[in-house]
Specification:
Elements lengths: L29 E2 L10 E2 L12
Antiparallel strand pairs: 1-2
């Protein structure tokens, strides 16, 4: 899959993470629409990979 240019991802247990810490999702959604600081946001596109054991 192709990376989304400019989007870094360190979440190694996401199906869209690649070995160079890039995101390969076709698009991303970042949520909390009422966030007022960075710690209140999150990637809503996250999907746990098979090898991480969270499925």
């Amino acid at each position: 899959m192709d990376e989304i240019r400019g989007i870094s991802c360190e979440v190694k247990n996401c199906v869209y993470h690649d070995k160079s810490d890039c995101c390969t999702a076709g698009h991303i959604t970042v949520g909390n629409s009422s966030a007022t600081k960075t710690s209140e946001t999150k990637c809503e596109t996250f999907e746990c990979c098979e090898s991480c054991g969270c499925r």
